Amino acid sequence: MNETKGKNELLPGTLEMLILKTLSIQPMHGYGIAQHIRTISRSVLTVEEGSLYPALQRMLVKGWVSAEWKVSANNRRARFYTLTPAGRKQLGVEESRFSQVFGAIMRVMKTT
Amino acid sequence: MNETKGKNELLPGTLEMLILKTLSIQPMHGYGIAQHIRTISRSVLTVEEGSLYPALQRMLVKGWVSAEWKVSANNRRARFYTLTPAGRKQLGVEESRFSQVFGAIMRVMKTT
DNA sequence: CGCCTTTGCATAGACCATCTATATAAACTG
DNA sequence: CAGTTTATATAGATGGTCTATGCAAAGGCG
Q: What is the structure's pLDDT at A12?
């Protein structure tokens, strides 16, 4: 039945936080965001396009990022995303939320 | 009703791991599992019935737990779940998977 | 006694984030 | 010129979690 595969490598719910964090370093286009997360996580986390672009759209609508068409380092047209002040605030919210939930999970996992 | 109630308190994908861990302490019925997780996590994690029972059914089918009807400490009929050897093995798999993914997330979140 | 709360199991249906698959296109590569 | 890489985007499937609901029995209380 279910053999291997690592679908859902990403803990659902953390994608937007990872994107926000990535953009807090510098503005970046979607493809670059995916590469950055994959590289830094040593390929443990892979952001699929079908997850990435819808997430960026949601975040645009919510005002956490702004977007601008430019030319990439490889001379291709690309949409660069920049963290807004609201996005930076949201990053803080998600970071503290994540550590709270993670702490709770660890308490359960450490009980004997 | 529930105003500030955050949905998705639980990181999706961790529920089965938390159940396996709880049952590794001792056999327990569903209601008790939910209470245990809620108590230990200091109410950060709330396992809803609509999540719990389907999860237990899946785990039964996969052979990670076995079930037996008994009488609870409160003198009510209750279905007690016991971790099987396969379930114990699965707990190890999910623990290492979780720490791997968590480590990857932390690497992304710690980059400057 | 009648009522309410707690305990306890279970399912149906909604929701929604993520994945798979596909389409498009320009630039570089051999 | 064919193939790979870069880059964006959408449609549709998947699946786990949540909301809502139903049932039922035990125990406490006035």
A: 78
